[in-house]
């Protein structure tokens, strides 16, 4: 079933009764109306004509945010898997598959993942369709169409993403410019996919110049390696300086950044301080990063995930995301951010209530900062009524339990429901 644009009708208010938004506090009522959270407080009479949803003490959180997702390349493992499991292998096999992409095939795969993400509580997706001489603007145009088709169900931010590089793939710069003219929300980059360090830096400059010219944020794939033995994977300092020179602080995000973990501690502290000072966000993508990194290690295989605790301590804004779903880059996944959050916690030595709360924030409030919607997002009056009711009674247990998404609410309207029934069929003496 695919989303259809709803007529512009006045929807009735919705009151979430007995919703738990914090442990060690009484449940509250959350009153939604006109697409916004009207109020949060103790039980009160519903407005005339309002609908009610009894949460019965269940946890309510803001809608989850997929801050980095490749819809156009999802589910390609059905056609051809990665031959050697490497990043180079993933780029190569996907480049070949792209030559036979059709708009309908991209649309069907993307719809499947969008709808799966929505049922798992996602209310905003920053999608990265490829823009390059192989596929042209086909994938971007499809995702722009889906942005309109699903606008009542999930917000789609569209990133024009040059997977094949900018200078290496002649004609890509013009395609990026045309993608922004057609309505792409964000300009992307793939800094390491150039011939040498000079061209990597030139790509950074070109992409950030487009961000300034079109007044859009930038979101770059960068430093995606085990270490910085190849200097093309040590762009963090240059990117931070280039952002400051253009006044783009707070408007640039970097995906992956796995080689940060391979740098000496003192050097890493300097790099993280530069990113924090420049307001550059970092988005680890643990499912992909774990799968593709450490391939050459014979003993003590490296995790290949950005050092999240150090990012926190340095003041770098962080989110995490699914990145790819069942393709050459990541051969698994269900577009479920709670699964990815637990994976990040397990691999990042993150534990206890405080750490788990911060990990959950990386898919909610911190992700909202990364994608630029923090001013209208959250669990507070005046914020967008984009919420998820979870089938657990404890906020602390959200990542540990990955509970059923009882209700997903977008713009004050329930857009997805899930139930699960379990029955224990034995008794002890």
| Global Rg | 22 Å
The CATH top-level class label of the largest domain? Alpha Beta
CATH topology of the largest domain: TIM Barrel
Class by alpha and beta content: alpha/beta
Description:
It is built from 13 helices and 15 strands. It has 429 residues and is of the alpha/beta class. It has 2 domains: 89 residues, Roll (Urease, subunit C, domain 1); 313 residues, Metal-dependent hydrolases (TIM Barrel, Alpha-Beta Barrel), CATH 3.20.20.140. A 7-stranded parallel sheet has the order 6-7-8-9-10-11-12. A 4-stranded mixed sheet has the order 3-2-1-4, with no helix packed on it. A 4-stranded antiparallel sheet has the order 5-13-14-15, with no helix packed on it. Helix 4 links the parallel strand 8 and strand 9. Helix 5 packs parallel to helix 6, helix 6 runs parallel beside helix 7 and helix 10 packs across helix 11. The model has no long low-confidence stretch (mean pLDDT 95).
